[in-house]
Amino acid sequence: MTAFPPGPVPPPQDDPPPHAGRGLLLRGAVAAAIITVCSALAVATAGIAELDSVAKSFDPIPVAPAKFEQEAKAPAVTKAEAGDARTFLFLGSDRRYSDLKKNNPALKESLPARSDTMMLVRLDPDEPVTSVLSIPRDLRVEIPGHGTAKLNESYALGGPSLTSQTLQELLGIEINHILNATFGGFRKAVSLVGCVYADIDRRYFHSNEGLPVSQHYAEIDIEPGYQRLCGQKALDYVRFRHADNDLVRAARQQDFLRAMKDQVSTSSLFEDRDKLLDIFTDSVQTDEFLRSATGLESVLKLALFSARKPVRQVPFPAAFTTEGEIEYVVAEQFASDRAVARFLDPPESESPRVPSEEEDEDEDDTTGSSPSGEGKSDGKKEKAKPKKRKVDLSLLRRAREEGENEVARTVASGRVGFPLYFPVRATRPARFTTQDPHPHVYKIRDRAGKEHSAYRLVMVHNQLEGQYYGVQGTTWKTPPLLAKPTSTRIVNGRRLRLYRDGSRLRFVAWSTDRAVYWVSNTLTTNLSNDQMLGIAASLQRFEGS
Fold it and tell me: Do 176 and 88 form a contact (C-beta atoms < 8 A)?
């Protein structure tokens, strides 16, 4: 929800004519909204001078969610002016609820309306993060007036309003605003803002060629590895659900959300404001409050105050069950209550922070090496040596021989073009993917169009549950994914850059003179921090590469 910089909120509309800065602020707010709406990302813009007409151009949601009374009116954004916390329900659907014949008698037939993405986003001036809680579409719920069914059916039965009502009763929280977007808008907006570099955990492929109609579903063909996704490929990636479960799919969407949030530039929003506005207003429904100038302005101020806060994913505690022939996602009440509590009030331990200098020099005591210059004195007062911490390798097995065998043919072919590192240790159930050829060797272009070499090793941790982790290498030493490490740590003499998602490590990276390498956790971050550190520290260069 934060694809724009903080800055002053412009004066009300009855003041002198707007200047460029005023339009940029609202463009940021609308960008923030659609980024999360379209299953976690798309962007649009609008000008604050036309705030009232822009608000009224949104397709309304018939029944508004829980009423939110506070309105921020001051021209500067302070904590008090940002107002109280608000919870947004973002829906991504293949069609609008109004495309059903029962809602539009002029239609010759009903067009199925399904919501593929259901995401709660919490903007809270008192918290250091923006909380995101994805709700599984197959979650077993009680739909008011309709009985037990999958959550997704609430959208087909009563659109965004019934979905909001169902979630409020299920989770015991108040939803203040609803935004519902079609995937067509997502596809267009992602391409318009310059596409998104994403870390793809495995090969995604399905072709309907030669299959009976009963086995047809969305076609997709995306190779593993860090790459640039545009338009239809980005949509295929975030919507894919036929070879994994709702939890993995939600994690994939949130991962794409984080990547796009970090990459969307304010200048691109400004330059493409008219086209993005057309996409947004054509593709998004909102509740009545957001269809007013007052509503948009108040949300804008809260969004601006929250602009630089990182997105923090709250895992939904789910399991799977079958009742008759119906497969459901289920959650124990105490577990879902705990998730909601973390969503509304993120634990302080999960808040991102910049490590102290002592932490940055922390060294693992499994090695006898030390950071460069340690123990030397230049006459200045020496800092206290940080406490050493071990990396527990008991959950990893030795995998040197299979790793060498996996990459030997690729290295011999000379296709990589730079040193190839492979893991000497792996998680106990892991195996290399059966994809051929493997590793995947390819080229990637940066934003300036310069071509870089790259490879990806894919490890299958638990195929049934859609858990894949991997090793990435590329000569592009400054990819957007590695721009903001949360800390560093030295293990076995190797300085590792750490990237956290809450309390779990999402990526662990390190650099050489020629390239950068990183270990990617599974989308649902199933690998422990010690496993991630142990694998990264074990990466070894294949002789001859």
Answer: yes
Which residues sit opposite 247 in a β-bridge? Answer: none
Amino acid (one-letter) located at 462: N
The pLDDT score that the predictor gives to residue 283 is 75
Report whether 225 contacts 442 (CB < 8 A).
Answer: yes
Q: Give the integer Cα–Cα distance in Å for 496 and 297.
A: 43
Name the maximum alpha-carbon separation found in the chain.
85
Distance, CA of 428 to CA of 395 (rounded, Å): 7
Nearest to 303 by CA among 65, 58, 30: 30
CB contact burial 21-53 (16+ within 10 A = b; e otherwise)? ebbbbbbbbbbbbbbbbbbbbbbbbbbbbbbbe
pLDDT in tens, 71-114: 323 234 566 666 788 999 988 776 555 555 555 565 555 555 66
3-state SS track over 172-205: CCCCCEEEEEEHHHHHHHHHHCCCEEEEECCCEE
DSSP per-residue string spanning 232-269: HHHHHHHH--SSS-HHHHHHHHHHHHHHHHHH--HHHH
Please, what's the b/e burial string for 222-233 (b: 16 or more CB within 10 A of its CB; e: otherwise)? bebbbbebeeeb
Q: CA-CA distance, 261 to 196, in Å (whole number)? A: 9
Strand 451-462 vs strand 86-93: parallel, antiparallel, or unpaired? unpaired
3-state SS track over 70-96: CCCCCCCCCHHHHCCCEEEEEEEECCC
b/e for 252-261, b at 16 or more Cβ within 10 A? Answer: bbbbbbbbbb
Give me the residues of the chain with pLDDT under 50, please.
1-54, 67-76, 353-362, 365-379, 381, 386
Q: Which of 176, 183, 153 is nearest to 286 (CA)?
A: 176
Calculate the alpha carbon distances from 101 to 109, 213, 544 in Å.
Answer: 6, 25, 65
- What SS3 class is residue 481? helix
Between CA 286 and CA 289 the distance in angstroms is 8
Predicted pLDDT of residue 377? 43
The letter for the amino acid at 118 is: M
Q: SS3 for 328?
A: strand
pLDDT of residue 171: 94
User: What is the C-alpha separation between 352 and 127, in angstroms, rounded?
Assistant: 11
